[in-house]
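Open question from group meeting: does this chain pack into something compact, or does most of it stay loose? Before anyone orders reagents, we agreed to write out a predicted structure and look at it together. Recording both the input and the output here so the notebook holds the full record.
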Amino acid sequence: MVRNGERQEGRVRGVAARAGGWSARHRWAAVGIWVLFVVLAMGLGNAAGRVDVKESDQLKGETGRAEQITERAGLDEPAGETVLVQAKDGRLRSTAPEFRRAVEDVVKAVEGTGAVTNVRSPYAARAQSVSKDGRTALVQFDMRGDPETAADRVGPVQRAVAGVADDHRSLRVEEIGAASMNKTFDDAFGDDFRTAEYSAVPVALGILLIAFGALVAALLPVALAVTAIMATMGLMAIVSHVQPMSDTANSVMLLVGLAVGVDYCLFYLRREREERMKGHDAGTALRIAAATSGRAVIVSGVTVCVAMAGMLFTGIAEFQAMGLASLMVVAVAMVGSVTVLPALLSLLGERVEKGRLPFPRRGRRRGGESGSRFWTRVLGVVLRRPAVSVAVAVCALLAVAAPALGMKTQNLTLDQEFGDSLPIVATYDRVNAAFPGGSEPAEVVVGAPDIDAPEVRAALADFRARAVASGASRGPVEVTVHAAQNVAFVYVPLVGGSDQDRAERSLTLLRDEVRPATLGKVDGVEAPITGQVAGSKDFNDQIVGSVLPVFAFVVAFAFLLMLLSFRSLTVAITSIVLNLLSVGAAYGILVAVFQHGWGASLVGAEGVGAIISWLPLFLFVILFGLSMDYHVFVVSRIREARLQGRSNTEAIRHGVVTTAGVVTSAAVIMVAVFSIFGTLSMQSMKQMGVGLAAAVLIDATVIRGVLLPAVMALLGEANWYLPRWLRRMPDLTHDEPLAPAPVPAAPGDEDARRAGNAKGGEEVRV
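Structure tokens returned:
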């Protein structure tokens, strides 16, 4: 074991220490460069504009091929809308005069808006849009203009339909369709994220105020995070011309940026503050923080970037956008933490303590070592009984993770996503009850060299007949032919309706039996099947197929980075295992609450029988990255104490106790921010919020406070084991010689030192 006295002052300094030293010496230049970077990134981003992901880029399966055929043909399939007219009392039928008048009024009202085309009355010949019991009829039409923006123009149509509903109180007159559902989704999604985004920063600032007890110190992490997010928004617009972005990627970037920006600044600032509390002058405290916490920030940041890069391997454009956006904001926050932050601390000196709140300061214990009394007591038990602690913690985590073995994933239907909180959900259920599968039919996009060729026409007719005869659909199966483009659209209501499992079985019948026996026999014909159910299945299949490559990439590179950063095979292996336990426990909580409904009412949710398909992979990548923040920070402090000559047990105690405050503060901020998402209206946001909050809470308590110290206590010197054949690896540890313990100053000297620091740190040189 290398002792502190054996290290030479001439060793090559680490990147973080060099960056911190330069920034402290050229503090105005460092601040100016950062401000210029943020302004330039935003300006160039605004000038370039953002390119968003197209529908045809979203998936690589049949859904993607269907979009590509439509795009090649130059067709913009219109956004279809439906108005349900239904008797409330069950006695009125579609043949009644009042019912007919209501239908006619709907037709006139929607046509009068000028925003629709191709209005079809249920009374037209071969319309087939009156239910079998005669109580329900559908008025169908298409929105004019670009279907991608139809949700922005559907408002006047909805108001016209609502006016008809007011005139016919004995009937239900309700609108549903692609545009109206997208508008509902966008409004709820936008409102949800605005609520979360507007709440996150004040919540983080409030917790930081409590943690630091000073306004200036609390504002620094928030300022760093916000400026990193602003710069990344500009960079996203520039990069989107190579890799298209999306609103979802932007929201995830905000979430990750706030998390890591606050964490990194918190780690750095708390260490600098701790060293000043020990009696070091501001310059020495800053140098120590740069060499220790600064290095931990870089190791953690690179590891998080690698984790985020795992999303690039999914092949799904939305995930690739989220991964690249998250990677960029982590990199920007990491650079800011080791450059502009030391410059600001050097400028502020002891003025970082300005705006102190009227809270009593916590005292320091032996040798100036500060820490948490709670974690000191916990560690006392853990280190006395490490084997028992490991057994209890592992068994508890495995028990919590056990429900994840039965995880079922799917895209959530409208009623699963919103429950009964939105009126359109009830309309969706009524349409599906009267016309099973009618609100979300499968769509067969048929492309042929000659769509009017007799064999193609015959195959289309045969497909229509067999779709019903096979039991996949109860009809009506509608066909729209675009002869000039040699494309036809076939709409097939699926048996199962909103029941995803039954609807997917109907889809499988169409794809595996009906299509091969009909359209599949005609040479040159393409007939991919898309639609909501097909899109959900294709997305789920692609997510499942990408799990292994993403998992392998993230785990392998995280292992390699930990191995290079700590030069310990044991630390690298335990890091991976502990993070996987944390992720597994989060999965178990998700499945228990949202799939089985156990305790769902406690978070204002309900069991919907499934986890939204994108969430497990997203959580794995995000949590694996964020967990490394805490792990790197704690293990770095333990390693530092061991290098100073402390025993294994004392090094563990010192590392965990002295980092407990910062890890707890960071975890409380993240749990609070993620919990905001758990209160939002959308089921997917609740699942994401609860999953992230639970994982961070488990990671900061059970993993870092119990399991990590217990495992390291059991392993002893084996913690730092590195096989001889691996010792030729590059040495990225860059162990910095720390400053000697400060000599207690006379009262007058201490006053002079504080006065000098308060002037802005004039004497700070790193």
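Observations to bring back to the group:
DSSP finds 26 helices and ten strands in the chain.
Confidence is low (pLDDT under 50) at residues 1-12, 363-370, 743-766.
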